[in-house]
Amino acid sequence: MDNCDFSVPAHRNVSVPFASDILDGVFPGKAILVKGTVLASVPDQRFVIDLCCGILVNGDHRDDKALHFNPRFDSSAISLFSKPDRDIVLNSLINNVWGAEQRCANPLEKGRPFVVRILILRDYFKVSLNGKHLSDFIHRIPIDRIKCIYVQGCVAIELIEYQGTCPRPSSPTLSDPSTDSSNLNESIEISKPEIPFIFSLPFDGFAPSREVFVILTPLLNASYFAINVLRGTEYIFHMRVDLPNQIDRKRGAIVRNSTTDGVWQSEERQLGRFPFTLGVTSDLKIAAVAQGFKVFVDGASVCDFTFRASAPPPTEANRLTIVGDVGTIGKTFHFQIWLDYPITCFALCIL
User: Fold this and answer.
1) Are 315 and 236 within 8 A, CB to CB?
2) Could you tell me which residues come within 8 angstroms of residue 123 by beta carbon, excluding any fewer than 6 positions away?
3) Looking at residue 209, what is its pLDDT?
4) What tens-digit pLDDT sequence spans the chain (351 residues)?
5) Listed residue (23, 16, 52) closest to 149, CA to CA
6) What is the Cα–Cα distance from 65 to 67, expressed in whole angstroms?
7) Spatial CB neighbours of 75, under 8 Å, sequence gap ≥ 6
8) DSSP3 helix / strand / coil % (the chain, rounded to 5)
9) Where do the coiled-coil regions begin and end (predicted)?
10) Is the peptide bond before 107 cis (omega within 30 degrees of 0)?
């Protein structure tokens, strides 16, 4: 976990089989991270991570399973005419009947650690494995029926962590994407704001411990998007995501910068693996910490940006904006936004 998370709900070093209520419930934007190791010296050759609609997880009258994540490591085939099953199978169980399997290659190895992250979106689950997108699984059961998580099989679990902040159901709905937060003292929801999106920050700006959380899907023809933290027209933090382009062989980049008296300063481009893929949904978090901003994509840290003495301090920020190409960026995101004040952090969720 990173040092920006405050009281993150989690289970640690659990015994398998394991079943528990999902802490704080299930909602679009929530992610469940499971960190463990595939066991080599046990009879089981498979393990499961199930998101279930009740506590009856075994037997002839099981509760429905909204998502069944099942890596397999079979050493022998079940018949002379088949191969050993070593896929990852995704499925659901409804009225005690399994649905159509969704299969993908299994990159896991016995004896090796892994991290599975299940991001719950409005229409589907996004499953990532060891920081890479594995598969999407369209909801077959309404997500508000999901109650518990169940783990069983050839696996040792070090951590089950629940990520994301739930919007309060009492939130009023605003139609104006340019929203003034100066008088906010409870959650609000903004439905389908347009790009450019402009949000007025509270009196203490983007102070350390505040966060912005964005769920987005770049279109196949998208070129870039940017998120900015400003005081007036001065950029305290500018993050531009240049998406890869196969036509001119442009590589993806995340460019970070600030301005002083309206003049751009030195760009920062250092980056490991570029985390965005055209057409693939990702969740992005920008967290203000003591020395700067930390950027996470799909729960993994991708880059940092240290506050610059030549730029205004983040506590003086008065606007947060999301901008991009006209006609492209407006279609790049599906929107739903929540903001919480006054608390130690705020969450901005765009679906």
Assistant:
1) no
2) 138, 139
3) 81
4) 343 343 568 899 999 999 999 988 898 888 999 999 999 988 889 999 999 999 998 888 899 999 999 999 987 766 666 678 899 999 999 999 999 999 999 999 999 999 999 999 888 999 999 988 899 999 999 999 999 999 999 999 999 999 876 655 444 333 344 445 444 434 444 555 577 888 888 778 888 888 887 777 777 778 888 999 999 999 999 999 998 876 666 788 999 999 999 999 999 998 888 998 887 778 888 889 999 999 998 888 899 999 999 999 999 999 988 887 533 333 333 333 444 333 222 334 433
5) 52
6) 5
7) 45, 84
8) 5, 45, 50
9) none
10) no
Whole-Å CA distances, 106 to 10, 53, 341 = 26, 26, 43
CA dist 342 to 35, 170, 171, 201, 241, Å? 33, 16, 14, 12, 30
Could you report how far apart the first and last alpha carbons of the chain are, in Å? 24
Amino acid 8: pLDDT: 61
Residues facing 70 on adjacent strands? 89
Nearest to 295 by CA among 317, 334, 269: 269
pTM value?
0.70
Which residue do the tokens 């649905």 mark?
99
Amino acid occupying residue 70: N
Q: Say if residues 189 and 171 touch (Cβ distance below 8 Å).
A: yes
Confidence at residue 349, expressed as pLDDT on a 0 to 100 scale: 44
User: How is residue 258 written in tokens?
Assistant: 């600030």
- Record the tokens describing residue 40, joined without a space: 């080599």
E strands in 204-324: 211-216, 224-231, 234-242, 253-257, 259-260, 263-264, 282-288, 292-297, 300-306, 319-324
Please choose, from the candidates 235, 251, 195, 241, the residue with its C-alpha nearest in 3D space to the C-alpha of residue 218.
241
Of 279, 282, 278, 219, the C-alpha closest to 244 is 278
Domains within the chain, CATH numbers bracketed: 10-163 (2.60.120.200), 173-339 (2.60.120.200)
Helix (H) or strand (E) holding 134: strand 132-138
Q: Which residue has the tokens 């055209």?
A: 278
